[in-house]
Amino acid sequence: MELIQALNVQGRVISALILRETRSRYGDSKLGFFWALFEPFAHIAVFMAIFSAMGRGVPIGDSMAVFILTGIIPWLLFNNIVTGIMGGVEGNQSLLGYPQVMPIDITLSRIALEFSTLVIVFLFFLILAINFGFSINIDDSLMMFSSVGILIILASGIGMINAAIKLYYPSYGTIYSAFSRPFYFMSGIFYTADFLSPDVLNLIDFNPILHVVEWFRSGFYTSFDSHFYDVEYVVSVSLAFFIIGLMAERLTRKRARQI
Amino acid sequence: MIEFRNVNKAYKLKDSYKVILNNISFKFPEKKNIGVLGVNGAGKSTLLRLIAGTEFPDSGKIIRSGHYSWPLGFSGSFHPSLTGIENLRFACRIYGADISEVTDYVKDFSELGKFIHEPIKTYSSGMRSRLAFALSMAIDFDVYLVDEIMGVGDKGFQDKCRTAFQEKSEKSSIIMVSHDMNTIRDYSDVALLLTGEHLEIHEDVDKAIDLYNSFTHKKQ
Questions:
Q1: Are A15 and B93 a contacting pair at CB < 8 A?
Q2: Are strands B2-12 and B17-27 parallel, antiparallel or unpaired?
Q3: Strand B199-202 relative to strand B190-194, pairing
Q4: Which of A9, A24, A97 shows the shortest C-beta gap to B77?
């Protein structure tokens, strides 16, 4: 009974927070949603310009734009969830003045917002691609959802760990963003794993995001089935980060309210 | 009902600790309006936040039953970049209150006029407290936790607050912190004296105020 009541309160808090976050990001100006669409568009445009100058062909499928889209969406999902969680408490500090609002609720609401934003953005670009005459046949949507689900768990774990560290070292945000930048190039956004030489692949195959992108594309493309990604590895790494993240959140909960 | 069991609370300063509560076990008198007295920095606001549950004790247990308000204070729980109405809706959602009923009540009570559609960061502290007060009155609580915001506004608004409380006095009580002794006298049935680490309850509010004044004699 008490548990049901507590879950009921938490459900109310999370839905109120989702509405609040959505409103402040997309409510007043059109700029918010424009940015959500522009960001992946900019990445796609830059890579397309580079590759057409190099004369490189499309690794999979008939559209370079769709290929990069299937890499940039998982990357942005990961990155936006991590940074969203890191800035969550800061952006909602005053709302922690309500006893039933917990930092974890802010985290959950930000995950929901980032996820739904990118689902809409992804669908938007797919429809656009269809209108441009490219054929989109999704091979295995369950596979795509599984890879995204694991990616969310991974990103949430890392986001919560980062948020905890940031409570003690505010400048950690800059350090993290510098540290995470190389991962952009190590995550298979604009190439597939078998495009890389074995030596290079050996260096970066620890990166779980690379596995997720390969997994995601294997679900998306009928003509592509990656032999590279290791589900067991990604799931265990993600769960490990997630559990550590939850512990970090638990340990720093008092401090989050005092700043 | 609120009870502290072996509660410890201290703040870390640069190289020492400021002790607010030192192993306190205390049962708050029920259904009484309590005025909290204590010199600056004794931890009155912290005490309210501990009661509300927005802050946790370092050790010990706080047992609470009933419906407590958030601590109604100047710094408040309003999000500065959201408007008054948006903050109101947020509070309604998390407390499960009816948004349109609360909106009507708050618009009428707070006298904020068009400002209710402006971001909170543009509000004066008086406007913030009027909104906080009106909003908390619109949502039914068993205990209202009031941090300093009583006694703001003009005489008319103060009378309105008093009447609102009197209407609620059968069901609800109040735990308040104020520097204004007249406000404490007005509202409190008992006084709680926070004397650095200890809590003392005084049935006689006037006597408690005298005692408090003797602590702060230098200032007065």
A1: yes
A2: antiparallel
A3: antiparallel
A4: A97
**How far is A158 from A242, CA to CA, in rounded Å?**
7
Q: Decide if B41 touches A, using CB distance below 8 A.
A: no
Give me the residue label for tokens 């709680």: B192
DSSP A64: H
Cβ atoms of A150 and A235 closer than 8 Å: yes
Of the two residues A30 and A231, the one the predictor is more confident about is: A231
CATH code of the region B2-219: 3.40.50.300
3-state SS assignment for residue A192: coil
Domain ranges of chain B: 2-219
In tens, the pLDDT along B5-39 reads 999 998 888 888 888 888 889 899 888 999 998 88
Q: Which two three-digit tokens encode residue A97?
A: 């003045």
Distance in angstroms (rounded) separating the CA atoms of residues B31 and B65: 13
- Has residue B218 got a pLDDT over 60? no
- CB contact B70 to A (< 8 Å): yes
DSSP lists the bridge partners of residue B26 as: B4
Query: How many CB atoms are closer than 10 A to CB A211?
Result: 28
Q: Amino acid identity, residue A64?
A: M
Would you kindly state where each structural domain of chain A is located, as residue ranges?
A: 2-258
